[in-house]
């Protein structure tokens, strides 16, 4: 990796933290998803996000230092991504909005020279599959039974209300709107751009779980 | 540099098997980008299939073991991003022979001249039937999707285009 002098460290850190935190929440679905295929799918998506986070961390510093030893207050992830899992519909809505945002962002970054451009070019191909997966579930559940429709709409309403924190581009909003319409769901309203919010105790809980092994065995390798 | 020793080492590196798909070599998968020599030390360049590919450390160790006791430095590059189009014809055949349907091309090649038909699905690597369906776009490793054959009912992995 080349020097980090030419990259916007804060922006890369936010991208990496978003990916790491989202990855952890998705990994919590393993053995809890509606089917074993979905366990595997969400685990695969989590692994892709973890890989992207590692490459981004390595671009600006030491990945273990940044992931395992940084105080929660220094994390730059959007708060919507640290919130605990609830209904499967909410997870799919969150993935839909995250993947729409990442796809648009990585597509534009992929044109840049250097290491960040190379990471983005790789990430956008992986995120395309995440986006397809979230779209397929959104349509299946939205255009499904009365119950699946209601739960998908509830999840979408909750995630959409905080999506502005990721500052999605118009392209991402348009893509998500088209999927929501196809899924016979209601588009909740305009996306309001907001500053990244203060972290909550949810991030402390997430990090302490993620850091359990390194806390007990500092510096362990395997 | 082409000496009998250098050629032998090069051959050994090219023969390193992928840790997750041991029926194909890293050369056939397109993970192996370049082998050069600098000041008498072998320099090998590899690239990951997926960003989160957990096999990269194992591949580095396997390359070192393949040329031991000779020294080797393994570099990792990301650009240009790996594509399933980088898999060689031999690699595709080996995958199919071992029950993994090879990926459809991502770029290049002629356009499909049949309009209005169902999307093309991979052939079943067990019975050869074209009647297959996707069970999940994600499977046992990051690079594969899970399919089921509608003729012989066997599930199989499909190396998904990337």
Automatic annotation (TrEMBL), chain A:
One of its GO terms (biological process) is phenylacetate catabolic process. InterPro entries: Aromatic_CoA_ox/epox, Ferritin-like, Ferritin-like_SF, PaaA_PaaC, PaaC. Signal peptide: none annotated. GO terms for cellular component: cytosol. This is Phenylacetate-CoA oxygenase subunit PaaI.
TrEMBL record, chain B:
Residues 7-68 form the MIP18 family-like domain. InterPro entries: Fe-S_Maturation_MIP18, FSCA_dom_sf, MIP18-like, PaaD-like, Zn_ribbon_PaaD. It holds the Pfam family Zn_ribbon_PaaD. Residues 119-160 form the PaaD zinc beta ribbon domain. NCBIfam families: PA_CoA_Oxy4. This is Phenylacetate-CoA oxygenase subunit PaaJ. It comes from Nocardioides marmorisolisilvae. The lineage of its organism: Bacteria, Bacillati, Actinomycetota, Actinomycetes, Propionibacteriales.
């Amino acid at each position: 990796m080349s020097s980090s002098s030419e990259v916007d460290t804060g922006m890369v850190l936010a991208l990496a933290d978003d990916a790491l935190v989202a990855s952890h929440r998705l990994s919590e679905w393993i053995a809890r998803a509606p089917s074993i295929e979905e366990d595997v799918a969400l685990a695969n998506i989590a692994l892709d996000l973890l890989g992207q986070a590692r490459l981004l961390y390595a671009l600006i510093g030491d990945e273990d230092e940044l992931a395992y030893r940084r105080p929660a207050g220094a994390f730059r992830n959007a708060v919507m991504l640290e919130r605990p899992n609830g209904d499967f519909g909410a997870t799919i809505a969150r993935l839909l909005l995250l993947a729409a945002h990442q796809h648009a962002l990585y597509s534009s970054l992929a044109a840049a020279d250097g290491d960040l451009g190379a990471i983005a070019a790789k990430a956008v191909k992986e995120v395309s599959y995440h986006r397809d997966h979230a779209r397929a579930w959104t349509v299946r559940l939205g255009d499904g039974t009365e119950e699946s429709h209601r739960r998908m709409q509830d999840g979408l309403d909750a995630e959409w209300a905080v999506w502005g924190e990721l500052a999605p581009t118009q392209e991402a909003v348009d893509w998500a709107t088209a999927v929501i319409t196809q899924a016979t769901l209601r588009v909740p309203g305009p996306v309001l751009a907001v500053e990244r919010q203060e972290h909550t105790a949810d991030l402390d809980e997430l990090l302490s779980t993620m850091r359990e092994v390194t806390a007990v065995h500092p510096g362990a390798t395997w | 540099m082409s000496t009998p020793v250098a050629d032998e080492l090069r051959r050994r590196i090219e023969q390193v098997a992928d840790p997750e798909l041991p029926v194909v070599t890293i050369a056939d998968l397109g993970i192996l980008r370049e082998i050069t020599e600098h000041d008498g030390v072998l320099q090998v360049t590899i690239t990951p299939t997926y960003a989160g590919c957990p096999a990269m450390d194992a591949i580095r160790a396997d390359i070192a073991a393949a040329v031991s006791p000779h020294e080797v430095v393994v570099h990792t590059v990301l650009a240009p991003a790996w594509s399933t189009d980088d898999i060689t014809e031999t690699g595709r055949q080996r995958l199919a022979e071992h029950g993994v349907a090879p990926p459809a091309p991502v770029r290049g090649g002629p356009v499909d001249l049949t309009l209005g038909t169902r999307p093309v699905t991979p052939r079943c690597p067990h019975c050869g039937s074209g009647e297959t369906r996707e069970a999940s776009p994600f499977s046992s490793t990051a690079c594969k999707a899970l399919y089921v054959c509608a003729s012989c009912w066997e599930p199989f992995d499909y190396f998904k285009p990337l």
